[in-house]
Amino acid sequence: MTNAASKQAGFTLMELMITVAIVAILSTIAYGSYSDQVTRSRRAAAGACLLERAQFMERYYTTNMTYVGAPDPLPACDADVASHYGTPEFSGAVTQNAYTLQIVPTGSQEANDTKCATLQVDSRGTRSATGTASATPAECW
């Protein structure tokens, strides 16, 4: 038998380690992007829930010509929002012509979403967030 016939084809350890390193780098980048998108989608669901409650307040005002006496905010809109945000609640006193609603993140959403944190909407439809100073309402809503 010749030496050429006994040679086996395959990957060297160095080639295998380079491949593993490339896969690890790509996985790290992909996971970071994925978790950011999950945080943003949960925030969007919470914002929609808050706007739904604000619409309820406007219907109450249309019927009663005051916001005073409106029932406390209803529980979160669905189970996905409830597991990452608290119940929509009034922020401050409800007056005849004004209110502010807010929804506060809890658990992993609170830890991961410091940029926007608590979402708020008032009777004029003004949206705001109480996160870091660098975040604008347009980024959070």
TrEMBL record:
InterPro entries: N_methyl_site, PilE-like, Pilin-like. Pfam families: ComP_DUS (PF16732), N_methyl (PF07963). It comes from Pseudoxanthomonas indica. Keywords: Membrane, Transmembrane, Transmembrane helix. The lineage of its organism: Bacteria, Pseudomonadati, Pseudomonadota, Gammaproteobacteria, Lysobacterales. GO terms for biological process: type IV pilus assembly. This is Type IV pilus assembly protein PilE. The chain crosses the membrane at residues 16-34.
